[in-house]
Protein backbone atom coordinates (compact mmCIF):
# COMPACT_ATOMS: atom_id res chain seq x y z
CA UNK A 1 0.00 0.00 0.00
CA UNK A 2 1.18 3.47 -0.86
CA UNK A 3 0.24 6.07 1.71
CA UNK A 4 -0.21 9.57 0.36
CA UNK A 5 -0.67 12.35 2.89
CA UNK A 6 -2.14 15.79 2.52
CA UNK A 7 -0.68 18.36 4.89
CA UNK A 8 -3.75 19.47 6.81
CA UNK A 9 -2.73 22.57 8.72
CA UNK A 10 -4.69 25.00 6.60
CA UNK A 11 -6.01 25.37 3.05
CA UNK A 12 -7.53 23.12 0.39
CA UNK A 13 -7.13 19.75 2.09
CA UNK A 14 -10.49 18.11 1.40
CA UNK A 15 -10.39 19.14 -2.25
CA UNK A 16 -7.11 17.31 -2.77
CA UNK A 17 -8.32 14.22 -0.93
CA UNK A 18 -11.44 14.10 -3.09
CA UNK A 19 -9.51 14.39 -6.33
CA UNK A 20 -6.88 11.87 -5.17
CA UNK A 21 -9.61 9.32 -4.45
CA UNK A 22 -11.16 9.88 -7.86
CA UNK A 23 -7.75 9.73 -9.56
CA UNK A 24 -6.84 6.27 -8.28
CA UNK A 25 -9.26 4.64 -10.74
CA UNK A 26 -7.16 6.01 -13.61
CA UNK A 27 -3.64 5.30 -12.39
CA UNK A 28 -1.94 2.62 -14.47
CA UNK A 29 -0.47 0.30 -11.92
CA UNK A 30 -0.26 -3.38 -11.08
CA UNK A 31 -3.30 -4.84 -9.36
CA UNK A 32 -1.29 -5.36 -6.25
CA UNK A 33 -0.80 -1.64 -5.87
CA UNK A 34 -3.17 0.27 -3.63
CA UNK A 35 -3.27 3.82 -2.38
CA UNK A 36 -4.47 5.12 0.93
CA UNK A 37 -4.87 8.81 1.69
CA UNK A 38 -4.50 10.57 5.01
CA UNK A 39 -4.56 14.01 6.55
CA UNK A 40 -1.21 14.92 8.11
CA UNK A 41 -0.96 17.11 11.20
CA UNK A 42 1.78 15.46 13.25
CA UNK A 43 5.28 14.13 12.74
CA UNK A 44 4.22 10.50 13.38
CA UNK A 45 1.49 10.85 10.73
CA UNK A 46 4.05 12.26 8.31
CA UNK A 47 6.36 9.34 8.99
CA UNK A 48 3.61 6.97 7.78
CA UNK A 49 3.54 8.65 4.37
CA UNK A 50 5.30 7.63 1.17
CA UNK A 51 4.33 10.88 -0.52
CA UNK A 52 2.79 14.20 0.46
CA UNK A 53 0.70 17.00 -1.01
CA UNK A 54 0.98 20.50 0.40
CA UNK A 55 -2.25 22.27 -0.56
CA UNK A 56 -3.04 25.83 -1.50
CA UNK A 57 -4.02 28.28 1.15
CA UNK A 58 -1.85 30.84 2.86
CA UNK A 59 1.80 29.96 3.12
CA UNK A 60 2.69 32.36 5.94
CA UNK A 61 -0.05 30.87 8.11
CA UNK A 62 0.92 27.36 7.11
CA UNK A 63 4.54 27.99 8.07
CA UNK A 64 3.61 29.47 11.45
CA UNK A 65 1.35 26.52 12.28
CA UNK A 66 3.96 24.01 11.06
CA UNK A 67 6.59 25.66 13.26
CA UNK A 68 4.28 25.57 16.28
CA UNK A 69 3.51 21.91 15.80
CA UNK A 70 7.18 21.04 15.39
CA UNK A 71 6.55 19.91 11.82
CA UNK A 72 8.93 22.13 9.86
CA UNK A 73 12.04 20.07 10.44
CA UNK A 74 10.29 16.72 9.87
CA UNK A 75 8.91 18.16 6.63
CA UNK A 76 12.40 19.29 5.54
CA UNK A 77 13.70 15.85 6.36
CA UNK A 78 10.88 14.21 4.36
CA UNK A 79 11.68 16.30 1.28
CA UNK A 80 15.44 16.78 1.39
CA UNK A 81 16.86 13.84 3.29
CA UNK A 82 14.40 11.03 2.63
CA UNK A 83 13.66 12.39 -0.85
CA UNK A 84 10.06 11.29 -0.70
CA UNK A 85 7.67 12.53 -3.35
CA UNK A 86 6.02 15.82 -2.57
CA UNK A 87 3.73 18.11 -4.56
CA UNK A 88 2.89 21.66 -3.57
CA UNK A 89 0.01 23.59 -5.11
CA UNK A 90 0.07 27.38 -4.89
CA UNK A 91 0.87 28.11 -1.22
CA UNK A 92 2.39 24.62 -1.24
CA UNK A 93 4.73 25.70 -4.04
CA UNK A 94 5.76 28.70 -1.94
CA UNK A 95 6.54 26.32 0.95
CA UNK A 96 8.69 24.13 -1.29
CA UNK A 97 10.70 26.95 -2.85
CA UNK A 98 14.14 27.66 -1.44
CA UNK A 99 13.41 31.38 -1.74
CA UNK A 100 10.26 33.43 -1.83
CA UNK A 101 9.76 37.08 -2.55
CA UNK A 102 6.63 38.60 -1.11
CA UNK A 103 4.93 41.59 -2.57
CA UNK A 104 4.38 42.89 0.94
CA UNK A 105 6.85 43.18 3.78
CA UNK A 106 7.57 40.08 5.80
CA UNK A 107 9.31 36.85 5.09
CA UNK A 108 8.48 33.41 6.31
CA UNK A 109 9.94 30.03 6.93
CA UNK A 110 9.83 27.46 4.19
CA UNK A 111 10.47 23.80 3.71
CA UNK A 112 12.50 24.21 0.54
CA UNK A 113 13.51 21.50 -1.88
CA UNK A 114 13.03 23.35 -5.15
CA UNK A 115 16.00 25.46 -6.16
CA UNK A 116 13.83 28.31 -7.30
CA UNK A 117 12.80 31.74 -6.17
CA UNK A 118 9.06 32.33 -6.28
CA UNK A 119 7.27 35.63 -6.41
CA UNK A 120 4.22 35.46 -4.21
CA UNK A 121 0.89 36.90 -5.31
CA UNK A 122 2.24 37.52 -8.79
CA UNK A 123 -1.15 38.37 -10.23
CA UNK A 124 -2.45 40.54 -7.40
CA UNK A 125 -5.37 40.00 -5.09
CA UNK A 126 -8.18 37.45 -4.91
CA UNK A 127 -10.14 39.72 -7.27
CA UNK A 128 -7.58 39.15 -10.00
CA UNK A 129 -8.05 35.39 -9.93
CA UNK A 130 -8.31 33.83 -13.37
CA UNK A 131 -8.46 30.61 -15.34
CA UNK A 132 -5.97 29.93 -18.13
CA UNK A 133 -5.55 27.05 -20.56
CA UNK A 134 -2.18 25.38 -20.16
CA UNK A 135 -0.49 22.94 -22.50
CA UNK A 136 1.19 20.48 -20.18
CA UNK A 137 3.39 18.14 -22.19
CA UNK A 138 3.70 15.65 -19.34
CA UNK A 139 -0.02 14.86 -19.61
CA UNK A 140 0.60 13.40 -23.05
CA UNK A 141 0.62 14.52 -26.66
CA UNK A 142 -2.56 15.86 -28.18
CA UNK A 143 -4.32 16.18 -24.85
CA UNK A 144 -6.77 18.97 -24.23
CA UNK A 145 -5.33 22.01 -22.46
CA UNK A 146 -5.61 22.01 -18.68
CA UNK A 147 -7.97 24.68 -17.33
CA UNK A 148 -5.77 26.01 -14.54
CA UNK A 149 -7.19 28.08 -11.70
CA UNK A 150 -4.92 30.87 -10.40
CA UNK A 151 -5.78 32.47 -7.03
CA UNK A 152 -3.24 34.88 -5.54
CA UNK A 153 -0.80 32.58 -7.24
CA UNK A 154 2.97 32.57 -7.00
CA UNK A 155 5.13 32.07 -10.08
CA UNK A 156 8.69 30.85 -10.38
CA UNK A 157 10.73 33.96 -10.97
CA UNK A 158 14.06 32.27 -11.34
CA UNK A 159 15.80 28.95 -11.10
CA UNK A 160 18.51 29.72 -8.55
CA UNK A 161 20.70 26.68 -9.05
CA UNK A 162 21.10 23.75 -11.39
CA UNK A 163 21.35 21.25 -8.62
CA UNK A 164 25.07 21.92 -8.38
CA UNK A 165 27.42 21.06 -5.54
CA UNK A 166 26.94 21.92 -1.87
CA UNK A 167 25.41 19.90 0.90
CA UNK A 168 22.05 21.68 0.83
CA UNK A 169 21.57 21.21 -2.88
CA UNK A 170 18.83 18.98 -4.16
CA UNK A 171 19.53 16.18 -6.56
CA UNK A 172 18.72 16.83 -10.19
CA UNK A 173 17.93 19.89 -12.22
CA UNK A 174 14.85 22.03 -12.05
CA UNK A 175 12.61 21.11 -14.99
CA UNK A 176 10.07 23.62 -16.20
CA UNK A 177 6.88 21.66 -16.89
CA UNK A 178 4.44 24.46 -17.54
CA UNK A 179 4.30 28.10 -18.54
CA UNK A 180 1.33 30.41 -18.53
CA UNK A 181 0.52 33.12 -21.02
CA UNK A 182 -1.46 35.45 -18.83
CA UNK A 183 -4.72 36.48 -20.50
CA UNK A 184 -4.62 40.13 -21.48
CA UNK A 185 -1.00 40.61 -20.47
CA UNK A 186 1.95 41.25 -22.70
CA UNK A 187 4.39 38.36 -22.69
CA UNK A 188 7.93 38.41 -23.93
CA UNK A 189 7.32 36.48 -27.11
CA UNK A 190 6.44 33.13 -28.59
CA UNK A 191 6.55 30.32 -26.11
CA UNK A 192 7.36 32.69 -23.27
CA UNK A 193 5.26 33.19 -20.22
CA UNK A 194 5.32 32.74 -16.47
CA UNK A 195 6.72 29.50 -15.09
CA UNK A 196 3.83 27.82 -13.27
CA UNK A 197 4.87 24.15 -13.00
CA UNK A 198 8.29 22.78 -12.06
CA UNK A 199 9.86 19.59 -10.88
CA UNK A 200 13.19 18.82 -9.32
CA UNK A 201 13.68 15.16 -8.59
CA UNK A 202 11.13 14.19 -5.95
CA UNK A 203 9.66 17.69 -5.66
CA UNK A 204 6.84 18.95 -7.88
CA UNK A 205 5.18 22.34 -7.68
CA UNK A 206 2.31 24.10 -9.43
CA UNK A 207 1.19 27.71 -9.11
CA UNK A 208 -2.40 26.75 -9.75
CA UNK A 209 -5.04 24.54 -8.15
CA UNK A 210 -5.98 21.34 -10.00
CA UNK A 211 -7.90 20.35 -6.86
CA UNK A 212 -10.39 23.14 -7.52
CA UNK A 213 -11.39 21.61 -10.84
CA UNK A 214 -12.91 18.30 -11.93
CA UNK A 215 -9.83 17.49 -13.97
CA UNK A 216 -8.04 14.53 -12.43
CA UNK A 217 -5.22 14.39 -14.99
CA UNK A 218 -2.44 15.95 -12.95
CA UNK A 219 -3.37 13.92 -9.86
CA UNK A 220 -3.38 10.78 -12.00
CA UNK A 221 0.00 11.66 -13.51
CA UNK A 222 1.54 12.44 -10.12
CA UNK A 223 0.23 9.28 -8.47
CA UNK A 224 1.68 7.36 -11.40
CA UNK A 225 5.05 9.02 -10.79
CA UNK A 226 4.85 8.16 -7.10
CA UNK A 227 3.99 4.53 -7.85
CA UNK A 228 6.81 4.22 -10.40
CA UNK A 229 9.29 5.76 -8.03
CA UNK A 230 8.40 3.37 -5.25
CA UNK A 231 8.53 0.41 -7.59
CA UNK A 232 11.95 1.36 -8.93
CA UNK A 233 13.28 2.76 -5.70
CA UNK A 234 13.70 6.23 -7.10
CA UNK A 235 11.82 9.13 -8.61
CA UNK A 236 12.11 9.62 -12.33
CA UNK A 237 14.09 12.76 -13.04
CA UNK A 238 14.43 12.26 -16.75
CA UNK A 239 12.60 14.42 -19.26
CA UNK A 240 8.88 14.63 -19.73
N1 LIG B 1 -0.84 33.91 -1.96
C1 LIG B 1 -0.78 32.73 -1.17
C2 LIG B 1 0.58 32.57 -0.52
O1 LIG B 1 1.49 33.26 -0.85
C3 LIG B 1 -1.10 31.50 -1.97
C4 LIG B 1 -2.51 31.53 -2.48
C5 LIG B 1 -3.10 30.19 -2.76
O2 LIG B 1 -2.63 29.15 -2.29
N2 LIG B 1 -4.19 30.19 -3.47
O3 LIG B 1 0.73 31.75 0.32
TrEMBL record:
Keyword Acyltransferase: no
Designated name of the protein: glutaminase
Entries under InterPro entries matching the protein: Class_I_gatase-like, PdxT/SNO, PdxT/SNO_CS
Binding site for L-glutamine: 57-59, 120, 151-152
A Gene Ontology cellular-component term: glutaminase complex
Similarity annotation: Belongs to the glutaminase PdxT/SNO family.
Catalytic residues in the record: 90 (nucleophile), 209 (charge relay system), 211 (charge relay system)
Pfam families on file: SNO (PF01174)
EC number annotated for this UniProt entry: 3.5.1.2
Superkingdom, taxonomy of origin: Eukaryota
Annotated organism of origin: Chaetomium fimeti
Keywords linked to the UniProt accession: Glutamine amidotransferase, Hydrolase, Lyase
UniProt GO BP: pyridoxal phosphate biosynthetic process; pyridoxine metabolic process
Catalytic reaction(s) noted: L-glutamine + H2O = L-glutamate + NH4(+)
A GO MF term: glutaminase activity
CDD domains in the cross-refs: GATase1_PB
Keyword DNA-binding appears in the UniProt entry: no
Gene3D superfamilies from the UniProt entry: 3.40.50.880
